[in-house]
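explain this chain.
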Amino acid sequence: MKFSTLRQATRFFSAPASIVPVLLGTALAARGYGGASHGTFHALDFVLVLLGGILAHLGANVLNDYFDFVKGVDTKPEHGSGVLTSGLMTTREALTFGLLLLGGAALCGLFLLHSHSAVVLPLALAGLACAVLYPAFLKKYALGDLLIILAFGLGLTLGAYGVQAGPLMPSQWLLVSLYAVPVSLLVDAILHANNLRDAPDDRAAHVRTLATLLSPHAGQLLQQVLLFGPLAFIVAGVLTRILPVWSLGTLLSLPLFLKAYRTGSVPGTAQTHLIFGLLYVGSLLLRPISL
C-alpha cells in the first residue's frame, strides 16, 4: 500500500492537535511552571510521550473513519479521510492499520510506565478509552467536543508535564490545566470546523455533534469562541501576570485565526493551532517576565 494512502488515512494534517499539547506540558515542566519546585527535562521521556501521543491520535483518526464507514455515515468521497469512501483502502486494512498505530502508542506507554506509572497509567487508559469508545459508541451522544478537550487539550498536556515533573498534587493538575486552556479551545476548533462542514450529511445520517444540534448561526458563534478565546486568554493571562509578557507574541498569529474563521478550513484551523501553539510554548520557554 502506498505511503501517501496511509498518510491520508491518518489525516496527518491534524497532527498538531497532539504535538502542541506535548510541547506545552514539557515546556511548563522545564521552566518550573504549575507549582513545580524546579524545572526538569528528560529527553527520552519527551520523545516517548510525543511519539505515543501522535500514534494514538493518528490511530484514533483511522478508527473513526472505519466506524463511520461501516455504519454508513461516510458515503461520499470527501467524507472522512476519503481512503475508504474512494476505495483506496479496505475496511479490514483500515482496522488493522488503526490498531497497529494504537499498539505503537501502547508500546511507548509501556516504556514510560515503569518509572511514571502514577501519571501514565490513568491518562493512558483514559486516552485509549476515548480513542476506541468515541467512534464506536459515544459519537452519537454529541460528546466529541468534550472528549477532544479532555484527551488532547488536557490529557496530553498533563501527561507530558507529569512525566517530566513527577506525580502531581491536585493544585498542580489545576494549574497546568489552566495553562492548557488556549490549546484545548483550539483543538476543539479543529473538530468543530470539521463538524460544521459535515453537518448536513451528519444530520441525514442521524449523527449527533454540536454542529448538528445547534443552529448554523449558533454553530458559527461557537467557532468564534473556540478560535478567538485563546487570544483573549493570552491577554488576560499577561495582565494578571499568570503568563509572561512574551506570550503577547502569540497575537502575531491573528491573521491565521481570521483566515481560518473566514474560510472554515479544517487544515487551516489545524495550521493556526500549530503556529499559535509554537508561539505560546516559545513564550513560556523564555525567561518568565510579567508586566
Summary: The CA atoms of residues 2 and 88 lie 9 Å apart. The domain at 7-285 is CATH 1.10.600 (Farnesyl Diphosphate Synthase). The radius of gyration is 19 Å.
